[in-house]
Amino acid sequence: MTISRKVAVVTGASSGIGAVYAERLAARGYDLVLVARRADRLETLASKISAAHGVKVHSIVADLTKDIDLAKVETMLATNPAVHILINNAGLARLRPVAQSSADDTGAQIALNITALTRLTQAVLPAFVSRNEGVIVNIASVLAIHSLPVSSVYSGTKAFVLQYTRGLQLELAETGVKVQLVLPASTATEIWDESGIPLSALQKESVMTTENLVDAALAGLDQGESVTWPSVADAGLWDKYDAARAALFAATQVGKPAPRYKIG
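Below the sequence we write its predicted structure tokens.
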């Protein structure tokens, strides 16, 4: 890779949201580093995008739940000075009650949705801060603020992404590094294939296409949004939610039990 053109790194790039991000960022003139498990799909996508947009596309075949593969991507992020955008898109859902879940499924969700996202962010951040520029996009989910009887682990991992990203935004507020949190609702991706709930079980009108999702997220990024809810028409709902959250936190800072507990 040369540093003649800025590079966007996209995880989970072989299909769905990641593949659309790759295409859209190539159309904006970025060279790409695409990260995913499926080599054949990565190669096909890389050839297609390179031919269509005349950009350089480098593929890294990696399973980000495995430490050796994750370390390989971390090294690239820490050492490639051309990297300007990191799209933390790779994710995994296993939607079933905890009592019916395997330890492996739970561990895989935590490893990919939390550990990989955190480590890749931490790998790229020192260079971004040093250059005082760069963009990190963390893909969470509307289930970051809502749990279903089958989403305890998945919702928990996405709640981590929400809080981690919000804290990171505060840390970087006085720098030129931008961090965007994207919270998709139901989106037509392959994540459903192994989730335990088929896409066909969802109400058709509630499902967004990957193209619309990514285009809305990029529009939010262009508009300077730190938090983007692609399917929420009333942006004021988030403002009210966030204000209520802040008020609730402030109410905890009193150092004594609430009167309703009648202690002492």
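The mean pLDDT is 94.
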